[in-house]
Amino acid sequence: xxxxxxxxxLDEVPQLLNVxxxxxxxxxxxxxxxxHHDRIEEPQRSDYLDVHPGITGLWQVSGRSDxxxxxxxxxxxxxxxxxxxxxxxxxxxxxxxxxxxxxxAY
Length: 106
Hints:
Oligomer: single chain
Strand content: 5-15%
Low-confidence stretches: none
Order of helices and strands: HHEHHEHHH
Shape: globular
Strand order of the largest sheet: 1-2
Radius of gyration: 13 Å
Number of strands: 2
Structural class: mainly alpha
């Protein structure tokens, strides 16, 4: 059952409560466990602290788990430094096919 939930990203649905509560955004870098922060170099590490984490983001629509942690950090850092409302709308729209194709969802 867990594999099915993960494949279709249904395990993300409870995060909507965090968005409603204001501790997360719909779009932004994924919240990372502490051991990932230790593997990310500056200045990308600081970029994570500048914004609320998001349910979807540039990393999620650019290959998700097919990317290594360095690529994830670069994509998320680029997002933080180039944020715009249009970018968020674009990423939300790109999330739909990313979820349905399940590319990179492990």
